[in-house]
């Protein structure tokens, strides 16, 4: 017998416990079974069950559902943290009135994550300040809360990571890792010119995920302008094809509501 198992506390089932003894036994059992939510909420749930005259089965259901809901919440928080979002953005905070180019019904449909289940792409195209990154992060957060594995990365950062992986002879492992996410959120695509080597490496990641796992991108350039980022015409065409086949494409427009808000605040304070 190992020393660790010998040191574990023993619980002997007893009947007719006083209320303090029963609560102490429940606390100890919850520790052993690793049920932190049940341990924290047991007394409150028990008191509520007594007031509402729940059956034993109803009381047990309340306890177990509280534990399950809290575990789901903690798992969602871990997935959101693992995604690497640079800041919190939620759909409830998006100002649809400030940007009429973005249809609320379409965004709320995307929040159901069926496009991720089907492995389809999402393209958010528009000028700076039109809400592309907000929507990208918020939809990524919705996916994480729904149970999908999500990764957010700036396009330039991903290319730099791929170049370093190729130099360190671990490119295959790095591409495979990016292939395992259910949703890859690629932000600021088109903000800088990529050399042919970097563009080819990015293309390998997109090919790894093609028609199998979703990619969501945000870009300040229309597809016609991507030749400034991907200077080799055939490679540019292939990348556009990868990202637009079966894609939802949202044009967030050219009017920066972020700038408009800043100007309004400046005027009101002036």
What does this structure look like?
With 270 residues, this protein is of the alpha/beta class. Helices cover 56% and strands 11% of the residues. It is built from 12 helices and 5 strands. The chain has helices at 3-6, 19-33, 36-52, 56-83, 104-110, 114-117, 132-145, 155-167, 171-179, 196-209, 233-244, 257-269; strands spanning 122-126, 150-154, 183-189, 214-219, 248-253. A 5-stranded parallel beta sheet has the order 2-3-4-1-5. Helix 3 (36-52) packs antiparallel against helix 4, helix 8 (155-167) packs across helix 10 and helix 10 (196-209) packs parallel to helix 11. It is elongated, with a radius of gyration of 25 Å. It starts with a helix and ends with a helix.
What features would you highlight for this structure?
single chain, 5-stranded parallel beta sheet, 270 residues, alpha/beta
């Amino acid at each position: 017998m190992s020393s660790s198992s010998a040191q574990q506390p023993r619980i002997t089932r007893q009947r007719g416990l006083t209320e303090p003894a029963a609560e102490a036994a429940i606390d100890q059992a919850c520790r052993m079974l690793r049920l932190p939510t049940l341990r924290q909420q047991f007394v409150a749930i028990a008191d509520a069950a007594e007031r509402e005259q729940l059956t034993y089965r109803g009381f047990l259901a309340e306890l177990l559902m509280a534990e399950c809901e809290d575990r789901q919440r903690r798992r969602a928080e871990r997935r959101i943290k693992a995604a690497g979002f640079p800041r919190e953005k939620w759909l409830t905070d998006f100002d649809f009135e400030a940007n009429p180019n973005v249809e609320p019904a379409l965004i709320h449909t995307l929040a159901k994550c069926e496009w991720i289940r089907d492995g389809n792409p999402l393209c958010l195209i528009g000028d700076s300040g039109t809400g592309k990154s907000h929507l990208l992060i918020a939809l990524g957060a919705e996916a994480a809360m729904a149970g999908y594995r999500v990764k957010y990365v700036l396009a330039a950062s991903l290319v730099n990571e791929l170049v370093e992986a190729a130099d360190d002879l671990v490119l295959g492992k790095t591409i495979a890792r990016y292939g395992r996410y259910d949703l890859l959120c690629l932000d600021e695509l088109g903000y800088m010119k990529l050399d042919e080597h970097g563009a080819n490496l990015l293309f390998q990641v997109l090919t790894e995920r093609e028609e199998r796992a979703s990619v969501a991108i945000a870009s300040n350039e229309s597809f016609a302008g991507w030749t400034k980022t991907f200077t080799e015409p055939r490679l540019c065409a292939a990348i556009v094809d990868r990202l637009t086949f079966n894609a939802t494409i949202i044009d967030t427009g050219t009017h920066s509501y972020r700038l408009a808000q800043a100007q309004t605040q400046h005027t009101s304070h002036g």
